[in-house]
Design a protein that fits this description.
Blueprint lengths: L2 H59 L5
């Protein structure tokens, strides 16, 4: 291999490594965003469940006794 071919090989490896690093960063950001969205949805669901369970308990405690 000539000096220019070796230089191009090294540059190509460097560009490929940078491209892979950027790709992994993008994939990790997407994964983190999905995880954050799922965590927020779970929190909303848990909050709603807690509210409705409290409301059900309130209704049971204040039922009219016939």
């Amino acid at each position: 291999m000539t000096a220019i071919e070796i230089e191009l090989l090294i540059i190509g490896i460097g560009i490929g490594a940078q491209s892979m690093a950027v790709w992994h960063m993008v994939v990790d950001m997407r994964s983190a965003r999905r995880s954050q969205t799922a965590a927020e949805a779970a929190l909303k669901r848990a909050t709603g469940d807690q509210y409705f369970n409290g409301f059900r308990l309130y209704r049971l405690q204040h039922q009219r006794r016939a």
